[in-house]
Amino acid sequence: MSTDPAIELPFYYGSISRSDAEQHLKLAGMDDGLFLLRQCLRSLGGYVLSVVWNLEFHHYPIEKQLNGTYCIAGGKPHCGPAELCEFYSKDPDGLVCVLRKPCLRSPDTPIKPGVFDNLRENMLREYVKQTWNLEGEAMEQAIISQAPQLEKLIATTAHEKMGWYHGKINRQEGERRLYSGVQPDGKFLIRDKEVSGTFALSMMYGKTVYHYQILQDKSGKYFMPEGTKFDTIWQLVEYLRMKADGLVTVLGEACLNGKPDEKKPAPPATRRQNGYSPPPKALALPMDCDGFNPYHNPNEVRKFNIKRSQLLIDEVELGSGNFGCVKKGVFKTESGQVDVAIKVLKSENENLVKEEMMREAEIMHQLDNPYIVRMLGLCNAESLMLVMEMASAGPLHKFLSTNKNTVTVENIVELMHQVSLGMKYLEEKNFVHRDLAARNVLLVSQKFAKISDFGLSKALGADDNYYKARSSGKWPLKWYAPECIKFYKFSSKSDVWSFGVTMWEAFSYGGKPYKKMKGTDVTRYIDEGNRLECPPACPEKMYTLMMECWTYKYEDRPDFKKVEESMRSYHYSLSNKAKAEEAAAAAKPVK
Ligand code: AMP
Fold it and tell me: Does the Cβ of 390 fall within 6 Å of ligand 1?
């Protein structure tokens, strides 16, 4: 979610009025240079700096520019509100005085959320719930992992779900709808203008219908002539409900289009309803496939035992291991068919490996996260079979090495953020994976990764924070942290080390880590303080995170909570940068 960059500032009060700001400054003593920061309602994303000088108040609006910088009219641009205040504390640069003393919020004065902070959040939730039929944890994960993409989607399509949006109707039809039924002042609707493809607002006032054109600037923002600009139509509508901003009156009751409106959301019946059609495959969001939430009916699929008659097994092999092979198949359930991957145990080594496979199934059965391959059940027939959801685009390293030219660094960041979300989930549930590597990250699509292969995984006891192996085995040494190799100790922190190596594989488009070395040489190499080098295409921030994952002492290594935070903030920052660049390109005059 786009968090408010001023939230950490102790002199930031959020969305308070001018008179409340003056009250706080009065209570704090009215010294010269006393100041506070508040949210600006007139310009979205902007602030107001309120300063005392000579027992008088001065209020300076701070605008958020298209390129993401902040500035006071006529002043220098700054990369954030904190940097701006820091600058004006040294140089008045046009203000009445320098900022001398912050007016600090008292502990019982929380930051007041702006009306759009809550609205955007609720809108996002409602949208995800209705469009993909997601709820609970799956919905939260969808929102965290896809916030930038969702915000963009909402900005362009959310109004279609609103009761006040009437689609493509002409002015006369708009009037007819407004005149039917009661005619209070402020009753309104939004319609698509037939010819220009822009929007119009039609509203009732004094039993007469007025029509206004909604303008759009080059960066796509919506506004009334001379009015405040908004990213979305629905934000503009919410704003016009509070301020007339040039209209004859503020917006009142919505003239409903007969479809469900925001006050009475429709119960989600089927997926992808309400006019949302999934984008082409390469652009599709993870939620556009059934794998995000494969349970049409939660009680139905999460059964441990699957009947042989419910399975169709294809001859196509997806992969193999020493246990046997993984085959493509279809799982028939009461509400339809699901594509599945079926791990089939080789019959000749059944007893040896059967137990291992049962242990893997036991672990997988306890996990339920969109970024972890789900086990749908076990089937004991001609051989023991573990039925999993299908990740048809295959292992990450192979996908990246064969699609080098089409996969962007942003795409890799997004995928690795998803892996960090899955790993954070494992950490919270006290499971250690012990074999995290690019070969065990499977792709459902180019934009959707899932962690797989729980053959080595362990559930830790409630009071344990590591698992101690009795002896070493056939271990992926190049992915293992020093404490695994030296003391056989495995924890979420050692998974963090492996995450770093997985990141390295991803950013080197499926390269082999420590290419020419043997596993045992790698241990010495690490002990001597060496680490893998930064892959050529890898952003500096991502390499810094990898290096943190390779902190020698596990006590000093970040956990997945921290790793996910870093991945998230970098993922969101890339999306914001792309948005700003798009806006700047759109704003450039065409020669
Ligand atoms: P594993 O032993 O679990 O690593 O599986 C061996 C190979 O089978 C993997 O490298 C994949 O190519 C394939 N595979 C395993 N699970 C799946 C799945 N859920 N969907 C698609 N392919 C899979």
Answer: yes
- For atom 16 of ligand 1, the residue with the nearest CA is 341
Answer yes or no: is the C-beta of 442 below 6 A from any ligand 1 atom: yes
| pLDDT tens by residue, 387-441 | 999 999 999 999 999 999 999 999 999 999 999 999 999 999 999 999 999 999 9
Question: With a 6 A CB cut-off, is 364 part of the ligand 1 pocket?
Answer: no
Is the CB of 453 inside a 6 Å radius of any atom of ligand 1? yes
CA distance 554 to 179: 70
Residue 456 Cβ < 6 Å to ligand 1: no
Q: Tell me the catalytic residues.
A: 435
* Regions of the chain short of the pLDDT cut 70: 1-3, 41-44, 66, 195-196, 259-276, 281-282, 295-303, 348-350, 579-580, 582-584, 586-591
* Residues above pLDDT 90, as percent of the chain: 63
CA distances from 541 to 83, 175, 534, 561, 566 (A): 21, 55, 11, 17, 9
Residue 291: inside a domain: no
CA distance 420 to 559: 10
Among 406, 464, 108, 421, which Cα is nearest to 286's? 421
Q: Cα-flanking dihedrals φ and ψ of residue 372, to 5°?
A: -130, 135
Q: Does the residue 282 lie in any domain?
A: no
Rounded distance between C-alpha atoms, residue 541 and residue 545, angstroms? 6
Query: 393 C-alpha to center of ligand 1: Å?
Result: 10
Cα distances from 373 to residues 217, 259, 376, 411, in angstroms, run 44, 37, 9, 20
- Alpha carbon of 318 to ligand 1 centroid (Å): 6
Backbone φ and ψ for 214, nearest 5 degrees, come out as: -95, 125
Write the residue with the smallest CA distance to atom 21 of ligand 1: 391
Rounded Cα distance between 285 and 229, Å, is 28
Do 376 and 439 share a domain, yes or no?
A: no
510 Ramachandran zone, left/alpha/beta (phi>0; psi -120 to 50): left
Interhelix angle 115-132/233-242, nearest 10 degrees: 140
Number of domains in the chain: 5
Pocket probe for ligand 1: among 396, 442, 502, the residue whose CB has the most ligand atoms within 8 Å is 442
Q: How far is the CA of 324 from the centre of ligand 1 (A)?
A: 11
Strands of the sheet with 441-445, listed across from one edge: 394-395, 441-445, 448-451
Q: The domain containing residue 178 runs over which residues?
A: 160-264
pLDDT of residue 483: 97
The answer on 137 and 202 residing in a single domain is no
398 and 488 part of one domain:
yes
